[in-house]
Amino acid sequence: MSAAADPQVLDVLIVGGGPVGACVAALLARAAGPGPALKVGLLQTPEPAAPVLPPGVPDARVLAFSRASERILEAAGAWEQIRGVAWAYEHMRVWYQGAMPTGDEVLQFDAAQVGEPNLGYIIAAARVTTALMDAFGAAGGRVIHGELQSLLGTPGADGLVRLQTTAGELAARLIVGADGARSAVRAAFGIGVKTHSYEQTAIVARLVPQRPHQNTAWQRFVAGGTLALLPLADGSVSIVWSLPEAQARCLLAAADAEFETEVQQQSDAVLGALRLAGPRLAFALQRLSAERYIAERCALVGDAAHVVHPLAGQGVNLGLLDAAVLAQLCVQARAVGEHPGAQRTLRAYERWRKGENQLMEFSIDAFNRVLAQGVGPVAGLARRALALTNRSALLKRFFIGQALGQPPDLTAWGSDRAWQRR
Fold first, then answer.
1. In Å, how far from its chain's centre is CA 6?
2. Mean pLDDT along residues 314-322
């Protein structure tokens, strides 16, 4: 049997079943347009990586999704299922230690300023992954439960990459590494990585505030870190609090009442008293940049290629843009008779996404160094810049537009709407 006729041979194999990997899979499986349908598989670990919460305990692991991500999720066939659990926020307030939360120094973003219904959505990460996996399955995608063990040599004359996995040997014309910061795909293809520890820990928890959250995402730069309070549908908030490692260890060990008081104080009590509604989770923070996004017949997306500080909430949005761009280029390659793993296609993907991601990484790092951890004249100048931005309608529209994002052209997907670049 030829490789082309072998039912075990895939056009694309995505390794990693998180939201970014599942998005690549769903987009490719649903892609319309000229040429034969792509055979797409997704290799997913059999056990969930995230801890299982006790029954009745709400999940604090939520993600902030931009409007661009909404468009991508709709093109992937997942948005209809997500819509009912997505909480739209309409306002954002950003201020720093020493400023009054209701003063002129507060940077205020409002969706109405740019004629948008909202600034984005807060959604439980697990709900997004489930909806994308359902869309992938409905489009005929193949889910393979197993783990990558090794790369079996270099691509052969038939253009296939062969992998040894715990589910057996698999072959594909393109391998997509969507398996996170400790990517086995990245290691197997010999792609180097640069990492930098922020020497910070992010504490994530769900709390019930005394006062309504007003559909507002609140963010305050505090000593050594950043505290964000993200609004949820049931009136509670999910906090993401990045702070020095030693301080984080103390807060994780503190009694609930002590922790609640500290969050209230550090948030300037903008929502009044706060009551814990679930466990505290912690994550070490680092910056990660893959030296290359591609290798022969391989592309990296999401955290396998880049990890950024969570203060801007852009990690998953950058990953979904990776997914959409790679899928778009693969579909364009198919339309002209090329395989999705063609080097020209992969180089175009790297050129498009690496520069945009590096610019975002640099900007987020600068905010973290200057506003969250900075002292002296430079930090003072940056804080005055927040006030100046707040007084400029033009600058605010620019920053809101950046936060909303610009998805690539997704007109080839099985969606009721043809998404164009904004």
1. 35
2. 93
Residue-number span of the structural domain to which 320 is assigned: 9-404
Confidence of residue 1 (pLDDT cuts 50, 70, 90): very low
Domain assignment present for 418: no
Beta-ladder partners of 109: 92
Q: What is the CATH number of the domain that holds 33?
A: 3.50.50.60
Q: What is the pLDDT of residues 111-122, one digit of tens each?
A: 888 788 899 999
| Mean pLDDT to the nearest integer, 383-400 | 55
**pLDDT range class, residue 317, cuts 50, 70, 90:** very high
Chain-centre distance of CA 292, in angstroms? 19
Task: Tell whether 419 is covered by a domain.
Answer: no
State how far the Cα of 151 lies from the Cα of 148, in Å rounded to an integer: 8
**CA–CA gap between residue 339 and residue 331 (Å, rounded):** 9
Considering its fold, how many domains does the chain have in total?
1
How far is CA 13 from each of CA 44, 53, 158, 167, 185, rounded to the nearest angstrom?
Answer: 11, 31, 16, 13, 11
**Cα–Cα dist 53/125, whole Å:** 14
Which letter does DSSP use for residue 344 in this model? H
